[in-house]
Amino acid sequence: xxxxxxxxxxxxxxxxxxxxxxxxxxxxxxxxxxxxxxxxxxxxxxxxxxxxxxxxxxxxxxxxxxxxxxxxxxxxxxxxxxxxxxxxxxxxxxxxxxxxxxxxxxxxxxxxxxxxxxxxxxxxxxxxxxxxxxxxxxxxxxxxxxxxxxxxxxxxxxxxxxxxxxxxxxxxxxxxxxxxxxxxxxxxxxxxxxxxxxxxxxxxxxxxxxxxxxxxxxxxx
Length: 221
Known about the structure:
Blueprint: H1 2-18, E1 25-32, E2 35-43, E3 48-65, E4 68-85, E5 93-102, E6 105-110, E7 116-119, E8 122-125, H2 126-129, E9 132-137, E10 141-149, E11 157-167, E12 172-177, H3 185-201, E13 207-218
Antiparallel strand pairs: 1-2, 1-13, 2-3, 3-4, 4-5, 4-6, 5-10, 6-9, 7-8, 9-12, 10-11, 11-13
């Protein structure tokens, strides 16, 4: 999969470099499930465009996973290399495929534990468990397929809409602890079991929905 991703990304960049200097170029500002972003679109012909963009956003919230309450920081950061096919150029509809270079993830820290907490299959006191810290990461390259409307390389001003899926793989969860038993093998084994429970609860995010809307402006004739 990574080899395919590298080849496809290289093909997109090669197309951009080799395309005519007279091709239409547009810029689009976006907001959506990948965060806030900006991208450049270049036309390679009446039916083919290439796009490259960057997205980012941070958001903090709290939630409960496997019975443990966490403060969670969602960190969105990604770069995209995409190819659009416009089967009916004048209609603006497009089919899109490409790669999202994915640095999205979560940072988690448990709230102050009072009394006791269950980790894996065992119960531990506040002193024994301490604070739990976790990171959730995904594959660094995610193939993307979707549909959309709008053509930044041909419309002076337009609306851009994208609906698709990024195949970012199953989440990889890593947990650590600060308590008095944090370095014992028994506690570490239970912490690994807790990681597995978290991964199962987040497994649906391996198919990440990409939804965005934006405003595009053509910057060349």
